[in-house]
């Protein structure tokens, strides 16, 4: 009943947004690639649309369209003007968004809201000048919650992961898999279910939200977590620059107050709610189980994170950024939230 209600509310929100879009002077096309019931589509896009409409007194609205391109193609989709707004997962483009690996590192304490705000502030303070998102307007930075290992086989110790074939999204999750002795497979999130169902992978590293969003409660019934998570996935919400520039001076000024940290915070809050729904899904299915790392394994994991962090700091330093200062800044910002 709860699932039906949430789905109905999401559909209702989209319907209202669609009617509002028809009355607006400008309707922005949002390209999205996760299932329509995913929290980004059910929560973040309706909230963003509401923020846009309120800021512009209804002159600008937005509507979501699916199937415009694969997850890795979303950046170029917006860059070329085939859509106005989208969300990108930085790990799908290896080597393109090096600085975003900083927020993905293990060891941070805090939820997705804190991490998303810290990610935006770090981007604004340290990384914007790297121009890694060249050609588009960055509206927000966001992260999902702490990464968890989901598999059908129960993992009871960190050493059990060695030799496993894992779907890893890229970025720091790829480094984590290698450090744990796993073989990584690159598969976009929408393909995870069939990858696990066909036994092409033994497990997947994703946040707890995937239990519900991608129905992992059916194909990966065991979850194993370490303190703080194995990693955090980094995303950006981006907009076609020409589309933004064509808006009136008043609307651009109004929307700039909506975008940035405000939108990053709203998106992070949504990711926390999506994670909570994933945990509910796990507990609602009696054949699903959550195993937490033992104190010994938590200590082993802590020791493994040192080289992972140093590797990313070295990569970001090579871009001409004070990576050590940026890392300390992120820790400070997250602890302040």
Describe the structure.
The chain is α/β, with parallel strands linked by helices and 337 residues long. Helices cover 49% and strands 17% of the residues. It is built from 14 helices and 11 strands. Helix 6 (172-179) links the parallel strand 6 (165-167) and strand 7. It starts with a helix and ends with a helix. 48% of the residues are buried. Mean pLDDT is 93; it is low at 1-7.
Characteristics of this structure?
2 domains, D-Maltodextrin-Binding Protein, domain 2, 17% strand, 6-stranded mixed sheet, 337 residues, alpha/beta, disordered N terminus, 11 strands
Task: Specify the CATH homologous superfamily of the largest domain.
Answer: Bacterial extracellular solute-binding protein, family 7
Low-confidence stretches: 1-7
Q: Based on the structure given, which CATH architecture of the largest domain is correct? A: 3-Layer(aba) Sandwich
Helix and strand sequence: HEHEHEHHEEEHEHEHHEEHHHEHH
Please summarize what this structure is.
With about 325 residues, the chain is of the alpha/beta class. It has helices at about 1-25, 40-55, 75-80, 100-105, 110-125, 170-180, 190-195, 210-215, 215-220, 240-245, 250-260, 260-285, 295-315, 325-335; strands at about 25-30, 60-65, 85-90, 135-145, 145-150, 165, 185, 205, 220-225, 235-240, 290.
């Amino acid at each position: 009943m709860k699932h039906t209600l949430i789905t109905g509310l999401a559909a209702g929100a989209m319907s209202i947004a669609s009617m509002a879009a028809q009355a607006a002077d400008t309707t922005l096309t949002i390209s999205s690639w996760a299932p329509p019931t995913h929290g980004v589509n059910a929560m973040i896009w309706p909230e963003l649309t509401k923020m846009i409409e309120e800021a512009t007194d209804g002159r600008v609205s937005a509507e979501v369209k699916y199937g415009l391109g694969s997850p890795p193609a979303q950046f170029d989709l917006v860059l070329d003007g085939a859509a106005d707004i989208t969300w990108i997962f930085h790990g799908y483009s290896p080597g393109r968004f090096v600085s975003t690996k900083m927020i993905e590192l293990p060891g941070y304490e805090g939820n997705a809201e804190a991490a998303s705000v810290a990610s935006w502030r770090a981007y604004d303070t340290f990384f914007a000048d790297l121009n890694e998102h060249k050609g588009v307007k960055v509206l927000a930075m966001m992260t999902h919650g702490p990464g968890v290992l989901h598999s059908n086989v129960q993992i009871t110790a960190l050493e059990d992961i060695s030799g496993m074939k894992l779907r890893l999204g890229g970025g720091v999750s790829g480094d984590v898999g290698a450090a744990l002795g796993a073989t990584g497979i690159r598969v976009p999130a929408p393909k995870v279910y069939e990858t696990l169902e066909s036994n092409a992978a033994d497990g997947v590293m994703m946040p707890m939200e995937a239990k519900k969003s991608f129905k992992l409660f059916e194909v990966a019934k065991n979850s194993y977590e370490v303190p703080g998570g194995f990693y955090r996935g980094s995303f950006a919400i981006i907009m076609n620059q020409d589309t933004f520039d064509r808006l009136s001076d008043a609307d651009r000024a109004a929307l700039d107050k909506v975008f940035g940290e405000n939108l990053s915070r709203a998106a992070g809050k949504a990711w926390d709610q999506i994670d909570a729904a994933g945990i509910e899904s796990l507990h609602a299915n009696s054949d699903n189980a959550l195993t937490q790392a033992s104190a010994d394994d938590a200590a082993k994991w802590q020791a493994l994170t040192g080289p992972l962090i140093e590797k990313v700091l070295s990569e970001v330093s090579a871009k001409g950024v004070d990576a050590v200062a940026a890392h300390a800044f992120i820790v400070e910002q997250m602890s302040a939230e």
